Amino acid sequence: MLLLSTFVVVLAGLSGAKPLASKRWNNVAVKHRWVEIPRGWEYHSTPPGDHLLDMRIGLKQDKLDELISSLYEVSDPAHERYGQHLSKEEVDALVAPHPDTVEAVESWLLHHGINPVDAQFRSASGEWITIRVTVAQAERMLDTKYGVYYHPASGSSVVRTMEYSLPAELHSHVQMISPTTYFGTMRSMRSTSFIQPQTTALVEDADSFAAEISPLAVPASCGTTVTPACLRAMYNTTAYVPKATATNKLGVAGYLQEFANDADLQVTFFKSFRTDAVGSTFTHVQVNGGLNTQSDPGVEANLDIQYTEGISFPTPNIYYSTGGSPPFLKDDSTPSNTNEPYLDWLNFILNQTTIPQTFTTSYGDDEQTVPQDYAISVCNLFAQLGARGSSIMFSSGDNGVGSGDCLTNDGTNREIFQPAFPASCPFVTAVGGTTRVNPEVAVSFSGGGFSRYFAQPSYQTASVTPFLTALGTKFAGLYNATGRAYPDVSAAANGFQVVIGGRTSSVGGTSASSPTVAGVVALLNDFRISEGKAPLGFLNPLIYSTAKSGFNDIVSGSNPGCGQAGFTATTGWDPVTGLGTPDFLRLQALVA
Ligand SMILES: *[C@@H]1O[C@H](CO)[C@@H](O)[C@H](O)[C@H]1NC(C)=O
Ligand SMILES: *[C@@H]1O[C@H](CO)[C@@H](O)[C@H](O)[C@H]1NC(C)=O
Ligand SMILES: *[C@@H]1O[C@H](CO)[C@@H](O)[C@H](O)[C@H]1NC(C)=O
C-alpha cells in the first residue's frame, strides 16, 4: 500500500518535470559487453519486437558486507557467533536494497512507462524485481539490440544480447539485469556426469555384495565398482544411525528435463544396494513449472538421489525439479523464459522459512562464460543460504584444469586454465573426484584451479599457500594465484552403479562425488542436530581449520587439461582433490 501511494506521487511529480527526468536517464554507460559471441553459440536472427521477455533486475543489496561478515562469523568454529544462523527475516533485512536504490530503479522504470507495482515478481527483501517487457522496450531501456542465438550442441535458442547499458546513475544501484549477456541455459550447461560404458555394471543381484562389505575393510572391487556399501565403508558412515530425521533434510537441486525416478530408487536400487531402505522414498518439489516425468528418468537426477539416499537414509531427501517455460520459438506468444540456471531455484528456496540443512548440485559452466556481475549475484545468493545454516556442495567439473582449446573470450585469445562456476564461488563447497581404493587417488578429470572472478577467501590461505609455494613458477600465467582456489574436498567419482529405467549402469563424474559428500555432511548434520546443536551451515571456514584432520589427504594423481599436464595432488590441499575425502568418524569427533 505504501508503495502504491509513493508511485502515484512520483508519477505526478514526473509529469511536471519531464525534461529534467529524461535528462536524468540520458547519460548511459555500458554495464556488460562481450567482445565475441560466447563459444558454442551462433547468431540466428532478429527476434520480433513484440516478443515478450521477463526482465529480471537485481538491485544492489544495501548491507551485503554485513551479510558476508555475519556468514563468516556464524560459520567460524572459533567465533562466539558460531552456529547462530540467521532467520529468513534477518537475511532479508540485510539484502534489502537501500531506499535510494529502490527510488532510482523505480523512477527509471516509470520513465519507461512501467509501473513497478505491475511487476511479475518482487522478492521479499525487494532485491529482485521482474517485469514483463517486449524486446523493443528492453532494447530502449538497455540501449541495445537483442538477437536470437542458437546453441547447436544442445539445440537451445535464446534471446540475448552482446552488451547492455544503463544510465550512469543506475550503475551503483543495479547489480545485474537479465536476460542480457548470460547465454547459459540449463540445456547448454554441462551436468557433470557421464555413463561409463567401458566399465561393467553389476548385473547380478547385489544383496550379497552389499552384505559382504565390512566397515573396517574396503574391498578392492570398490576401486572400480562403486555402491553405497563401498562409500559407507570408505567414508566410515556404515555404523551411524540417523536420529534427527524429523528435522534434518537433504536437498538435491535438479534442473530442466532431469527427473528422478521413484521406482528406480525404491524398487531396483534399494533392493540391490541398500536393502534396509526398500520402499522408502523422497519428496519431489517442482519449482517454476518444473516437471516430474516418471517415464523419463535422468542419469544425473537418478545418480544424485540414489547416492544421497544411499548414504543418508533414513534422512528425508528432497529432489527439486526446476523448470521454466519452453525455449524461444519465433511464433510463440509465450514469453521466452530466461531459463537461467540457479536464479529461479535460489529465489524459490530463499523464500522458504525452513530449508534443508544440506544441498548438492551437479551443474557447472566455464567461469568466463558467465558475466562477472551475474556470477557475483548468484554467488551472493549462496551466501544467503549459508547464513541461513545450509551446507552447499557443488561438483567441481569433469575437465581437469579445462577442456578444449582453453582460449580466453576477451579478444586476446590467450590459452589459460578454465575455472568452473559455481565451484569457484567462495561460498560453496566444491567437490572434486577420486578413484580406486587403498589408497584413493585423484581421478584425472577432477575439476580444479583458481577463480579469475573471486579473490581467495582468507579461510583457505593457510592451506593453499604451501601448494602455491611448492608450485613455484610452473604454469605461471595460466592460472590466477590470488583467486579462490578449489575444489575444497573430494570423493569417489568413478564406476557408480546407478539404476536408470530399471537397468544398472556405471556412471562417473564429479557429480557422483558431490552427492556422496552431501550424504556424509547430512549425517554430520544429523549428529549435530540430535545433540541439540546447530547444523554445520557453510562448511569452508570449519573444514579449512579445526576439521581439516577429518579428511583423508589424497596425495597422487593429477588433472590434465588445456593441453597441459594439470595440477598434481600432493600432501595437504591441492587443486585436484582439495583437502581430501571425508572420514565421517573423525569428522564426527571434530564437530562434537
Ligand atoms: C575409517 O575408515 C578407514 C578405511 O576403512 C580406516 O582406515 C580408518 O581408520 C577409519 N577411521 C576411523 C576413525 O575409524
Ligand atoms: C514467497 O512466500 C510467500 C509466503 O509463503 C508467498 O506468498 C509468495 O508467493 C512466495 N513468493 C515466491 C516468489 O515464491
Ligand atoms: C585474479 O583474481 C583477482 C581476484 O582475486 C581478480 O581481481 C583479477 O582480475 C584476477 N586476474 C586474472 C588475470 O584473472
From TrEMBL:
Domain Peptidase S53, chain residue ranges per copy: 225-592
Cofactor(s) the protein requires to work: Ca(2+)
BP term (GO), one: proteolysis
Any one annotated GO CC term: extracellular region
Cofactor: binding details: Binds 1 Ca(2+) ion per subunit.
Domain of life of the native organism: Eukaryota
Signal sequence bounds: 1-17
Principal location listed in the UniProt entry: secreted
Enzyme nomenclature, EC number: 3.4.14.10
Catalytic residues of the enzyme: 300, 304, 511
InterPro entries: Peptidase_S8/S53_dom, Peptidase_S8/S53_dom_sf, Peptidase_S8_Ser-AS, S53_propep, Sedolisin_dom, Tripeptidyl-peptidase_I
Localization annotation: Secreted, Extracellular space
Keywords assigned: Calcium, Glycoprotein, Hydrolase, Metal-binding, Protease, Secreted, Serine protease, Signal, Virulence, Zymogen
Entry keyword annotation includes Transmembrane: no
Catalytic activity, reaction form: Release of an N-terminal tripeptide from a polypeptide
Record's protein name: tripeptidyl-peptidase II
Source organism of the structure: Mycena venus
